[in-house]
Design goal:
The complex is a heterodimer of chains A (about 240) and B (about 230).
Chain A (H helix, E strand, L loop, with lengths): L7 H6 L7 H54 L13 E4 L11 E8 L2 E11 L7 E8 L3 E9 L29 E2 L24 H27 L12
Antiparallel strand pairs in A: 1-2, 2-3, 3-4, 4-5, 5-6
Chain B lengths: L2 H12 L10 H7 L3 H25 L8 H23 L1 H7 L10 H11 L4 H31 L1 E2 L13 E2 L9 H4 L1 H32 L1 H8 L1
Antiparallel strand pairs in B: 1-2
Classes of the chains: A alpha+beta (about 240), B mainly alpha (about 230).
Chain lengths: ~240, ~230
């Protein structure tokens, strides 16, 4: 915007400055300079705009692919046959999930039948900062898989909750949640061993494991209780958390 | 030396952007933690420098002297934005690493310095060549700096290459249980290594000068011997 400002004063001043010769040449030069600057601005803005238009489809595709890759971590792509990225509903900041902002709920279906819900949760009681989780909960109420999407746990100590940082590559810690449901794990047993549950924790960093365990347990319970209603939500509608 | 060779020599060694002119140190020190990061930012800089010199020298007849700096900055900023968007679209993984440093090329004073000092006064071909050579001068120093810091800091070379070539992997130069030397990765390490590089360059230049001096003093000697 500011580039166009110098253009105005010379144009307005030009008629006044006609009698005196040096003044008119000064205003003529300023007008000319302003027009040149304006032209340069226009040309290069047009260049940037056209490149932006050119890259836009690629960028959208990259963003969609990133989401798809993240979801594939918790839900194998051959488990469903609908377009996961369009069969979505908006989740408000749900307390049980530890969220303080709206997120997206993805619903996987096969042959029109519900398969799994994919959504985010946040563990707020980690050792340092929040731990972001992505969960896939099957229609029959099992935790298909959970992955840590972001965390700030101590490197080399608590960061084993993220399978990429887990030193045990054969049996990453987070994989023990795969397929767990409340039918096999009774409510009180969904705890780390130190708290009397059945989830293993690693020595020296119980807090990170406890945060992920409790948060994923709460999230699973939340999704399981509302499973049918969540699947029935119209596409792109907003979920309303009923306050009982 | 022909002009082409002079420009190349200036860019690569004599007026090397980093070792000679000490320009663009901000992005240089921030990004040279690994070889791949350093060389990638360097390549983007070559592209921007070559293109900005090309465009400025082609348009130099139309740019009024009084507003040349705003126009130069406009051109450089537009080019950097274009490179930024193109990288985001087609080299996305690398963009995630270099993302915040790409816009910093705009304020990398070496770009404006070459545009103002060279492209505004010289032909299109010579200016483009100068931009590319200055860019290569930048990239070999930043690449060497990145390689030394990566090697000393974590014992590898080319870590993160899979962001550019998906099939390639990093080379583990030192043994896998090398504990790493954190200072080399941290900003102070960048200053230490850069200081050593500048010292090495000055030493090489000093030695070359000594040799020239020695030749000059030697040459009259045989003549004197012949007279006696």
């Amino acid at each position: 915007m500011s580039e166009t400002v110098p253009h105005d004063p010379p144009a307005a001043a030009a008629p006044l400055a006609v009698p005196s010769d040096p003044a008119s040449s000064v205003s003529r030069i300023s007008a000319r300079t302003a027009v040149i600057l304006l032209l340069f601005t226009l040309v290069f803005t047009a260049l940037m705009a056209s490149i932006y238009q050119l890259t836009l489809p690629v960028l959208q595709q990259t963003a969609a692919e990133g989401k798809r890759r993240m979801i594939a971590e918790v839900l194998p792509p051959d488990a469903y046959d609908n377009d996961l990225l369009t069969d979505i509903a908006a989740l408000p900041p749900v307390k049980a999930l530890g969220l303080d902002e709206s997120t997206t709920l993805y619903r996987a279906r096969k042959d029109g039948k519900p398969v799994a819900l994919v959504f985010e949760a946040m563990a707020t009681d980690g050792y340092s900062g929040r731990i972001g989780l992505l969960l896939a909960v099957s229609a029959d109420g099992r935790l298909l898989a959970v992955r840590v999407t972001q965390h700030k746990e101590t490197p080399g100590l608590g960061d084993y909750i993220d399978p990429k940082k887990d030193k045990n590559k054969q049996q990453p810690w987070i994989k023990q949640f795969d397929g767990l449901g409340f039918d096999s794990v009774l409510g009180k047993k969904w705890r780390v061993r130190k708290d009397g549950g059945i989830i293993d924790q690693r020595a020296g960093a119980t807090i990170s494991a406890r945060a992920v365990t409790n948060s994923s347990g709460r999230a699973l319970l939340w999704a399981h209780e509302r499973s049918a209603r969540l699947f029935a939500l119209p596409t792109r509608s907003q979920w309303k958390e009923a306050t009982p | 030396m022909s002009q082409i060779a002079t420009i190349a020599h200036n860019g690569l060694w004599k007026q090397n952007p980093v070792l000679g002119q000490m320009l663009g140190l901000c992005s240089l020190l921030a990004i040279s933690t690994t070889t791949v990061n350093a060389v990638s930012l360097g390549l983007a800089t070559i592209l921007v420098m070559g293109l900005s010199n090309l465009i400025v020298s082609a348009l130099r007849g139309f740019i009024p002297y009084e507003i040349r700096i705003p126009v130069f900055i406009l051109i450089i900023a537009a080019l950097v934005t274009v490179v930024d968007m193109a990288m985001n679209a087609w080299l996305h993984d690398l963009y995630l690493v270099l993302g915040i440093f790409i816009p910093l090329i705009v304020v990398n004073c070496i770009v404006l310095a070459r545009v103002e000092a060279f492209a505004a006064k010289n032909s299109v071909a010579a200016s483009t060549w100068d931009g590319v050579m200055m860019g290569i001068g930048f990239v070999w120093v930043i690449g060497l700096l990145g390689a030394i810091r990566e090697l000393v800091g974590q014992g590898t070379l080319f870590s993160g290459i899979e962001m550019i070539i998906p099939t390639a992997t990093a080379i583990q130069v030192l043994s896998a249980d090398y504990p790493g030397f954190l200072v080399a990765i941290l900003p102070p390490g960048a200053f230490f290594v850069l200081g050593l590089l500048v010292a090495a360059r000055n030493w090489l230049d000093w030695r070359a000068n000594q040799r020239i001096l020695a030749q000059r003093t030697l040459q009259p000697a045989p003549a004197a011997a012949g007279q006696s």
